[in-house]
Each structure stands twice: as C-alpha cells, then as structure tokens.
Amino acid sequence: MTTPPTTRHQQLRRIAGQLIMVRFPGTELDAATAAFLKANAIRAVCLFRGNMRDSAQLGRLTAELREVMGADSLIAIDQEGGAVVRSTWVPAPPAAMGLGAADDSDLAYRTGAAVARAVKSLGFNWNFAPVLDLNNNPHNPVIAERSFGAEPRRAAELGMAWMAGSHAEGVACCVKHFPGHGDTHVDSHRDLPTVDKPLAELEQFEFAPFRMAAPTAPAMMTAHIVYPSLDADNPATMSRRILHELLREEWQYRGIIITDGMDMHAIAGRYGVGKAAVRALEAGADMVMALGTTETQEETLDAIADALADGTLRLDDMNERLGRLAALAQAYPCRPRAYTDDLGDRVLMAEGWRRALSAKGAPQRPARDAKLRLVVRQDVVSDGVSEAGVPAEVLADSLRRLYDVELVTYADAEAFDWSALPQDGRYTVLASTSRLRYGEHARATWRPDLHLALWNPYQALDFAAPALITYGFVAPALDAVNAWLAGQLEAKGRVPVPGFD
Fold first, then answer.
1. pLDDT per residue as tens digits for the range 473-494
2. Catalytic residue among 78, 260, 263, 462
3. From the CA atom positions of the chain, what is the Rg in Å?
4. CB burial class (10 A; 0-12, 13-18, 19+) of residue 440?
5. pTM of the complete model beyond 0.85
6. Beta bridge partners of 451
7. Distance (Å, rounded) from C-alpha 337 to C-alpha 355?
8. In the annotation, is 196 catalytic?
C-alpha cells in the first residue's frame, strides 16, 4: 500500500505551521493535539496555568512536546514575575517594578537567572519576558507593576540585566511589548488602544528601552496598539512601517519578531485571525502567536498557506524567517536539566521582595498589641493576564501571626460603606488584592489607617492614607510586610514612577 502524495496545500500548511505558535487546553498531550502538531510541522507552543499541575506533570508534558515537535522545539512561558507567572510553585520572582524600586542591576541579573533555572528544569527554552514598557500612565489597566519604571534608560538597564541573567542559564528572552504599551488607558486583550504622541516623544520615551535592547534581545513581541505618528491605519502588529521599516531597517534588528496573541480582541475582533496573521507576516513578523482554539488555528494555517500559494507572502521571505527561528532554537536548545537551586533561589527571591518594599506617606506601625481590622475584597480573580490575587483568609492568617485580626470583606468597592465600620478603636488596614484602580466612591469615603497595596502600586494614590507597597501578593511579599510590621525591616524601595514622592 502506498502513501497518497501530499497536496500542494498540505505542503504550504506545513510551512505555515512553522511560522505559528499555538496553545492547547489541558495538562496532557492528547492524541488529537499531537497529530495536529505533527501533521502541520508546528514546533512552537506556549503553555499557560491551565496546562500545569506540578513539576512532574509539566516535565512529562514538555518532554512529549519535544518528541512530537522535534529538536528545534520552542516551548514558551510567561514567567515575568509578580502576578504574571504561570508556574506558581517554583521560587516566586519579584515584579519588574519591585526590582525597579530596589534599583540594583545585580539583583535584576540574579533574578532573571533564577527564573531561567526554574523554567529550564521544567522543559522551557523561551520566556516571554522581560517587559520593557515604560509605565508612564497611572491608569494603565494591564502593565503597571509589570514595568521596571518610567525612566527609559534605567528601565532598560534593569530589563537588560534581567535578560542577561536568563541567557546565562540558557533560556531565551522575548522583550515586550514593542514599541511600547505603557501609556494606554485600554487593555489590548479587550480593545484596540492608541498611543497618539509625536514621533520625537515616542523616540525619547516609549521606543528608547527597545532600541537599547535591540542589539542583544533574541526576540521582541509586538503590541496590538496604533501609533498614528508612524502608521494611523494599522496596529504595530500589522504595520510594515513599524516592524520592517523601523525595527528591521532603521534599527537593524536581527532577532525574532513575534506577535502578541492574535486571539486578543484588539485583533481577532476587528480583523479576523486568519487575515490578521497574513498581515502580520506581510508587515515583518517572523512568528504569529496563534492562540485561541483549534478552529482559529486551522483558519490561521489555511490563510497563511493560501497567501503563500497566491504570492501574497513570498516563499523566499518566509524561508528567511524560518532560518531565524531555527537559529533561536539552536542557540537556546530545549534541553531541561535538574533543578538543584530551589532553596537558594527562594532566598534570593525573598531578598528581592524585601528590598522592593516601598512606603508612601510615612506609614506608622501599629502597636504590637493593637487589634487590627483588615478590609479586603471577597474574591480573587485573574484579569486574563495575571494569576489570581491572594485570598482574603490567607492574608488575614498572615497578619494573625502578629496581631488579633478581624476580617471584613466586600464584594463591590463602589457599594461598600466605610462609615458602617465599628468605631471601636481597631487599627484599620485596607489591603488591595487586584490590579483594578478604585472608583470615585471609595476614593472619596474610605479612610484606612494603613493601606497595603499588594498588587498595583498606583492604588496607593487613590487614598490619602499612608501606604506600604509590595508590587505583588505572593508569600515572600507578605513575609516582607510582616517583617516591616514587626520592626525587623525598613521599607527602603523607591517607587520608580512619578507621583509617589
């Protein structure tokens, strides 16, 4: 029995498959997914929290992926630090802005190296970090503490130190979100933002960290944002003016250009995933992050194959991009190694969280025998980018190591009546455990004695109360808060964005 010949369309789909990165549901590589990857020559996947249970399971999954996808596999993860981590049981890295608050390039290098050691052991060779966006908009709904700060040179230096640490441990970085997501009011997961600034201002601020990193960054991720001073008609992901003319020709960038997720509403809801993928490749992207579902991935493969067939995408150009992708996989091979540094890396991460701790408004410690009232939201939710925040009871139990704590929770900040709290002399602590800024009602009427800003530092600006800022909510961040409350630690971090002096 002979095998039927491969059709031209199938051959082109196999080229298309090497130009996309996919995701899939579940913690096991089922037969259908394995067959889909193999049939389409896909060699790049991104894994998320829903793909992970523990180290043993994840190690098996990445090993199975390597077997199916081959020696040039690219297995990626978002392990930035702070709230944006997918493997939540390994040592918890401080958020970028926490490292900005500590302002120590060596600490940033050591943190990037430790992150890489952990994810390398789990089978990853590509980390979509660090974030080089300058968070110069206090109301940015999606970046905030993910940024190293607002000053271009220092943010770039810290990000590049973090990246150098990762590379020293054999995990490729991908800086994001080129050419800058920091000054937006809109989350591109939900709609299409615009950054309408003069080109000179963009070059001085938003572009500067990416330009500084361009000689050493092996990959850059595009932003689904319109920059009218460069291209009024297309978001950066689909703009030849931005990806090819600016990044490739003007900056002479030689690394990988990968899109952000094409399932995000800024793209999928406006352009359709297949057409958008072709436009991104036309614009100069090397790889399309075709997340979404199997159906949208099939649509993407067919659209790229059709564009190759009709000449919209030139095969020579695509082969050049495949060469860059192969070079990345070969420079950072997907070869996991044993993780023997867990304890030492936990000590390192704890150092980072302690040195990040920042104060606003000269907070005073409650007396050791004080009774505390902790006010915190009921639910902990993921915003689709970050992992869920710390549960109210977990936070209360942490503070109970030092104090008698009464826990008060609310469902809706705009409906919560602060004046209804008993006037019984308890020291009242508000803990913020989401990234969402507070609304008018809360800002006008809430009067905590101390505000623990455990996620988005800009929440500390919503109240006149003194605040302690951690840039994250994991156990070592809560330990740092307790160390400060016990008088064992001073909050020496400096918030690296304007408005906190």
1. 999 999 999 999 999 999 999 9
2. 260
3. 23
4. exposed
5. yes
6. 430, 467
7. 30
8. no
